[in-house]
């Protein structure tokens, strides 16, 4: 994950308006531009710089080449009950598709205790963690699963060829204080991290790649061969059966439930997504839930650290701290993100915001 220590700071409202203008320049309406821009910047606020506004250029390029869609009338509700829905995104920009799925699932949960929405053929959806806090703020427990049936980069445990994507899972857990925000992939590392290491001419920190000859390595070049190498599933060579099993679960919960996946041979960047929302008040009660989650969080924070200079942390705590600071002091974007945004602004003849 890139750091923003060498970046530039931008006021949040100004950055949001700028990114919205970029998407409007390529035909997005007000609602779509607002949702996509807000979601991508939320990724930056939480420190997920590779999955924040760094994606703007790729999204706009995909719009201009005709793959990503900005016509929201294409977004289709295929089926719906009181607690479940299937949507077909028809490759409308992913943050819009997920936002609609989140809205359905959260509203269903508030009325029935649980809601589930599946989206097939969404365009790329950005950072999963970016969708969690608005749901936990409602006292709900969200779970988000995602895969891309057009991409294969992670091997099966014991296999060589890439089978599926890192297949991340995100979970938001309300507490009496800040929520716990979990966003983890079912692979040892992500595609983006491999690419970034290769571009920087660096080896990976650990041998987490499988070459096309079946050799485990930390050399990112082994991933870009013909035929390609692969990323080991979560757990690595020794315990990868666990990540592999969870990756298969995500495939079933996304493309499987959506009725569109690898069997259909899609060749375009996109996503299958499932959003589940649960309302604790229909079960043991919200107060009991947050008392329990807060009790456990406190126990974790007070556990004895292996390294006394590095206290035990809770998932999402660092991101939420970054978010608070950046909303106050300006969104700090790394140099490579700023460079990409400047190039896109020049391409679309759009004024670039003044940094702080």
- Examine the coordinates and then state which fold CATH places here, giving the name of the CATH topology of one domain: Ribosomal Protein S8, Chain: A, domain 1
Structural class: alpha+beta
Largest sheet: 7 strands, mixed
Give the rounded overall mean pLDDT: 96
Radius of gyration: 20 Å
Order of helices and strands: EHHHEEHEHEEEEEHEEEHEHHEH
Strand percentage lies at: 15-25%
Number of helices: 10
> End-to-end distance, in Å?
24 Å
Provide key terms for this protein:
single chain; 356 residues; alpha+beta; Ribosomal Protein S8, Chain: A, domain 1; 7-stranded mixed β-sheet; 3-stranded antiparallel β-sheet
Layout of helices and strands:
Layout: E1 8-10, H1 12-25, H2 30-45, H3 56-64, E2 76-80, E3 84-88, H4 94-112, E4 114-122, H5 133-136, E5 141-147, E6 154-155, E7 162-164, E8 169-173, E9 180-184, H6 191-199, E10 209-210, E11 216-217, E12 230-231, H7 236-258, E13 271-278, H8 286-301, H9 317-329, E14 331-333, H10 335-348
Parallel strand pairs: 3-4
Antiparallel strand pairs: 1-14, 2-3, 4-13, 5-8, 5-13, 6-7, 8-9, 10-11, 10-12
Helix pairs in contact: 1-2, 2-4
Polypeptide structure, described:
A seven-stranded mixed beta sheet has the order 2-3-4-13-5-8-9. It has a three-stranded antiparallel beta sheet with strand order 11-10-12, with no helix packed on it. It is built from ten helices and 14 strands. It is an alpha+beta fold and 356 residues long. It has a domain at 72-290: 2-Layer Sandwich (Ribosomal Protein S8, Chain: A, domain 1), CATH 3.30.1370. The protein starts with 7 loop residues before the first strand and ends in an 8-residue tail after the last helix. The protein has helices at residues 12-25, 30-45, 56-64, 94-112, 133-136, 191-199, 236-258, 286-301, 317-329, 335-348; strands at residues 8-10, 76-80, 84-88, 114-122, 141-147, 154-155, 162-164, 169-173, 180-184, 209-210, 216-217, 230-231, 271-278, 331-333. Helices cover 38% and strands 17% of the residues.
